[in-house]
């Protein structure tokens, strides 16, 4: 194969798993020649002769490999072809090997995506999009892939050029206030369910996720390790952690579980602290509310309780993990705690640590009126 200074690259664009078809993209000055080297169309039309946009069915064969394959090749431009082959992982890997043996540089889809987009934020959005687990999260990332955050940073740069530091500062502060939301588009919000043994923590988890994720027993100390279950609440990705009931225990395994439960509370975005409606101890409830004021406090087994005394401080919800009473209200409360403000469609927002760090630095520079440094930070945000 002739070589030029611009490399010809190949990447598998479809996910690395078994599927109906896999797509290999070849791009660069030798893309057509490389594909023609291995591919013979049914009508004996070469890709070189074929018009752009033509899709050809034919046979792919490498000399050193006795196994050929019938497949489809599309000529997308004079420098881009797409090969649609069998969806098994081996089929696409074999095509990559053939192309590599002829001098093609093999890239990952991430490298290909990054190289296709001059703006780093747009490239990052395209890389993060496949990781979005709910459609709502994907829509916000799609906005960023379509340039929402990039345009906002350009606007901030223009404001700085006009010495309008105040408005630039306000815009940056607003973007940073959305950082937690943006990061959670690809990483679920973490919710830990904690409380004394036997109050119904595992039962509540099962009720919310809709299947028997955790073992439920009428025996205190049933859950030992931290159990995770991922779901979506109102379209937002969340991960629940069910923990060991917190109590004084001589059991070594249980102690380890309790230590893990306490650690999980510290790292969670939200703790749900559960209490037993059939065994309400107002003093303990009051203490729990004081110790964990940002937690959501839930009195469970409400179906078994008549009149219960609810403490008069903080927020308290009543549920039954058996009948489901109060669970929709709990879900509404969880969502409004985690996402007090839902950004509008097309809202620019940062969604990677790199962007958040870069925006924080820029915000400081704008506050200190460091014009040149701020422009450099903007430059860095656009080009990773
Ligand atoms: N009637 C009623 N029973 C419940 C409710 N929630 C849980 N239970 C029962 O209470 C017992 C303990 O429930 P679990 O969900 O295992 O409690 P836990 O808090 O996870 O317990 P540990 O893992 O031991 O800390 C089981 O028999 C459940 O069926 C409820 O809301 N109403
Ligand atoms: Mg449990």
TrEMBL record:
<dbReference type="GO" id="GO:0005525">
    <property type="term" value="F:GTP binding"/>
</dbReference>
<dbReference type="GO" id="GO:0016787">
    <property type="term" value="F:hydrolase activity"/>
</dbReference>
<dbReference type="InterPro" id="IPR027417">
    <property type="entry name" value="P-loop_NTPase"/>
</dbReference>
<dbReference type="GO" id="GO:0030488">
    <property type="term" value="P:tRNA methylation"/>
</dbReference>
<protein>
    <submittedName>
        <fullName>tRNA modification GTPase MnmE</fullName>
        <ecNumber>3.6.-.-</ecNumber>
    </submittedName>
</protein>
<dbReference type="InterPro" id="IPR027368">
    <property type="entry name" value="MnmE_dom2"/>
</dbReference>
<dbReference type="Pfam" id="PF01926">
    <property type="entry name" value="MMR_HSR1"/>
</dbReference>
<dbReference type="InterPro" id="IPR005225">
    <property type="entry name" value="Small_GTP-bd"/>
</dbReference>
<dbReference type="InterPro" id="IPR018948">
    <property type="entry name" value="GTP-bd_TrmE_N"/>
</dbReference>
<dbReference type="InterPro" id="IPR006073">
    <property type="entry name" value="GTP-bd"/>
</dbReference>
<dbReference type="GO" id="GO:0002098">
    <property type="term" value="P:tRNA wobble uridine modification"/>
</dbReference>
<dbReference type="GO" id="GO:0005829">
    <property type="term" value="C:cytosol"/>
</dbReference>
<dbReference type="Pfam" id="PF10396">
    <property type="entry name" value="TrmE_N"/>
</dbReference>
<dbReference type="InterPro" id="IPR031168">
    <property type="entry name" value="G_TrmE"/>
</dbReference>
<dbReference type="InterPro" id="IPR027266">
    <property type="entry name" value="TrmE/GcvT-like"/>
</dbReference>
<keyword id="KW-0378">Hydrolase</keyword>
<feature type="domain" description="TrmE-type G">
    <location>
        <begin position="188"/>
        <end position="339"/>
    </location>
</feature>
